[in-house]
């Protein structure tokens, strides 16, 4: 057994993140850890990889007790972590990110040519084809995620810990990662895999452990003896997921009209309309142009062409978009979404604040905290309005991003992977909220790497390839299979 943990506990102030957790990971297995947002998954993997020290409990590797002083300490013992929050160095190049210790260990072993030679097969295996000299911060989120995985693989770990490795990845990249993991496992590597994609988990993992409220609710059960229902029941305990029927919507009038929209290098001559109350999906592989549509409509790109949003022209900046009532919920919460060093309530009121001015903002503090409670309860955010946002679990942070836009009562909703890293019950709740916004007559544009999400929510989906709008699937024709085919079909169908 390379890793054996007994009685791990971790408290943050009054919050119990992990309580008396036993966990084992064998060579040549993928052991998945699942649970709702805030269940303690990241805390467990951070302890096992030396990032966080437990309050109590013991860890042994190959039967030898270990105490990790740091992540580097764990690395020297063969334990590598790909953390949930991406930690690429944005100003360093791809190759510098892959070999962050190279400047310290200078010498013939790590000459630039040698580094490139070592990196090439790993990046190839992962399907990450980017110039080695490119600045990591300029890469799309999915490539940054692959870059981090590549960095961990180059360490040739005996134990590889992946915390939500596929949250930004398209299906093809996920499939490639699965093949890589299968190869690693066949070589005897032990893999700990944390994910909210339960089907993916049951596909790749040999065993699954479920955490609930910091405790083990299902311990290392073989995936051949448990199904999706069993895992979900263990995750939720006595609770059930409330799936409220999607409110009947009446779409009327054109709310968004786009004609000949282009963004240099990203989008070419795209035209479509969205009715009030309609949810229109945007789908495409990486760099297909669908995200450029959101950027153009939210003031984050300078487009050419003709745009009318509720009768007004396209906003020229993110601030102008906010003032025009256009909400943009990003997938990259670290970069665009949140002030992590501020309490939750300041984040949830950050957008409304732009409209009401700083002085009033302070005067209305209690009211804003109440609003944060209200949305926190609605989206089941685990954490109080006064908690620092950075102390919330990843999925709960994503819910705060959503809450801050809801609190601003927007008139146009633009969403980019809004449920990334969010657990199944919160996902259902967020879907209900999106459907309600549409039912209230708001136009919604939804980009998502989660094809099931597009099928569940959208009235129709626009499919993009290489900067062009190539097809449109009405609700009646929507399926994950159909979407996948449309996204991958040869360029220029139209
Ligand atoms: N640094 C911290 N300070 C305070 N509380 C924390 C800290 N880190 C985690 N917590 C709390 O511990 C609990 C468990 O968090 P953890 O990140 O382990 O959950 P998780 O299962 O990984 O959730 P998610 O699926 O959202 O990533 C949460 O209530 C979280 O708010």
TrEMBL record:
The keyword Coiled coil does not apply. Pfam families: ABC_tran (PF00005). Residues 3-238, 241-491 form the ABC transporter domain. Keywords: ATP-binding, Nucleotide-binding, Repeat, Transport. Coiled coil: none annotated. InterPro entries: AAA+_ATPase, ABC_carbohydrate_import_ATPase, ABC_transporter-like_ATP-bd, ABC_transporter-like_CS, P-loop_NTPase. This is Ribose transport system ATP-binding protein/rhamnose transport system ATP-binding protein. One of its GO terms (molecular function) is ATP binding. SUPFAM superfamilies: P-loop containing nucleoside triphosphate hydrolases. It comes from the Bacteria. The keyword Transport applies.
């Amino acid at each position: 057994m390379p890793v054996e943990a007994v009685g791990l506990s971790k408290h943050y102030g009054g919050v119990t993140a992990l309580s008396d957790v036993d966990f084992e990971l064998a060579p040549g297995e993928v052991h998945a850890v699942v649970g709702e947002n805030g269940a303690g998954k990241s805390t467990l993997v951070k302890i096992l990889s030396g990032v966080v020290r437990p309050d109590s409990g013991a860890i042994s590797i190959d039967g030898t007790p270990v105490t990790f002083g740091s992540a580097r300490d764990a690395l020297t013992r063969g334990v590598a972590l790909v953390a949930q929050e991406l930690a690429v160095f944005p100003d360093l190049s791809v190759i510098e990110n892959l070999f962050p210790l190279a400047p310290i260990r200078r010498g013939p072993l790590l000459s630039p040519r040698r580094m490139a030679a070592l990196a090439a097969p790993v990046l190839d295996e992962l399907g990450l084809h980017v110039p080695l000299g490119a600045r990591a911060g300029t890469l799309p989120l999915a490539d940054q995620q692959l870059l981090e995985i590549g960095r961990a693989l180059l360490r040739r770990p005996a134990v590889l810990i992946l915390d939500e490795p596929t949250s930004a990845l398209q299906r093809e990249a996920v499939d490639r990662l699965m093949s890589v993991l299968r190869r690693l496992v066949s070589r005897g590597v032990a893999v700990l895999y944390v994910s909210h994609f339960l089907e993916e988990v049951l596909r790749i993992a040999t065993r699954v452990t479920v955490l609930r409220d910091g405790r083990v609710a299902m311990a290392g059960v073989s995936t051949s003896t448990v199904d999706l229902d069993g895992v979900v029941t263990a995750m939720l305990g006595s609770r059930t997921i409330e799936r409220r029927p999607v409110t009947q919507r009446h779409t009327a009038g054109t709310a968004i009209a786009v004609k000949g929209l282009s963004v240099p290098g990203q989008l070419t001559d795209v035209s479509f309309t969205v009715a009030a109350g309609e949810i229109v999906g945007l789908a495409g592989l990486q760099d297909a142009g669908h995200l450029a549509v959101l950027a153009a409509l939210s003031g984050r790109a300078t487009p050419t062409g003709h745009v009318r949003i509720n009768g007004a022209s396209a906003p020229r900046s993110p601030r102008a978009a906010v003032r025009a009532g256009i909400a943009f919920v990003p997938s990259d919460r670290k970069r665009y979404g949140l002030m992590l060093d501020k309490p939750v309530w300041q984040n949830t009121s950050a957008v409304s604040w732009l409209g009401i001015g700083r002085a009033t903002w302070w005067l209305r503090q209690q009211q804003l905290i109440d609003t944060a409670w209200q949305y926190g309860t609605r989206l089941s955010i685990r954490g109080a309005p006064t908690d620092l946002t950075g102390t919330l679990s990843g999925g709960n942070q994503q819910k705060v991003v959503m809450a801050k836009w809801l609190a601003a009562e927007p008139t146009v909703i633009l969403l980019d992977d809004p449920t990334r890293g969010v657990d199944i019950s919160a996902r259902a709740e967020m879907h209900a909220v999106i459907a309600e916004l549409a039912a209230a007559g708001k136009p919604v544009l939804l980009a998502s790497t989660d094809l099931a999400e597009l099928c569940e929510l959208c009235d129709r989906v626009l499919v993009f390839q290489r900067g062009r709008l190539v097809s449109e699937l009405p609700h009646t024709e929507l399926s994950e299979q159909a979407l996948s085919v449309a996204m991958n079909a040869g360029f220029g169908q139209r």
